[in-house]
């Protein structure tokens, strides 16, 4: 059975997390076991590519992504096993939305729950600089590795 995971953030954090997780899964030769995506709670950036600084950060680590932003749907709550988000605001919004969905099967958590360094919140780097994007990348890498090792 295919396991599925969707990251929730925006055009910065969730595409980084998705690309990092996809690379980890590919490197471990587990891509046949996982369906991975990323989405946003809001519809502000639907159809847009990730922030250019997010793409640059990923490229610096040898990772490419062709992701286009989309908004989370009711079906996501019914089909994805895990929905991992970046901060308390995302978590609140997702829990509210999931309460309106019949047959919600997704486990909704903060991605930071898996951080061995206990950084629970992955801050939005949008108003920051390249260093802030690098911090997000490092957090996502630690969390995604730990999530994958839990062998969901």
Would you kindly provide a written description of the structure presented here, covering whatever features stand out?
The protein is α/β, with parallel strands linked by helices and 152 residues long. It has one domain (3-151): Rossmann fold (3-Layer(aba) Sandwich). The chain is 40% helix and 14% strand. The protein contains five helices and four strands. The chain has helices at 13-27, 52-60, 74-79, 88-98, 130-149; strands spanning 3-9, 34-40, 82-85, 107-110. It has a four-stranded parallel β-sheet with strand order 2-1-3-4, sandwiched between helices. Strand 3, helix 4 and strand 4 form a beta-alpha-beta unit. Helix 1 (13-27) crosses helix 5 (130-149) and helix 2 (52-60) packs across helix 5 (130-149). The longest helix has 20 residues, at 130-149. The protein is globular and about 40 Å long. 37% of the residues are buried.
Write the layout of secondary structure elements.
Blueprint: E1 3-9, H1 13-27, E2 34-40, H2 52-60, H3 74-79, E3 82-85, H4 88-98, E4 107-110, H5 130-149
Parallel strand pairs: 1-2, 1-3, 3-4
Helix pairs in contact: 1-5, 2-5
The major sheet is characterized as: 4 strands, parallel
Number of helices: 5
Give the helix proportion (percent range). 40-55%
> How big a fraction of the residues is strand?
5-15%
The second-level CATH architecture is: 3-Layer(aba) Sandwich
The geometry reads as: globular
- Sheet with most strands: strand arrangement: 2-1-3-4
CATH superfamily: Response regulator
CATH topology: Rossmann fold
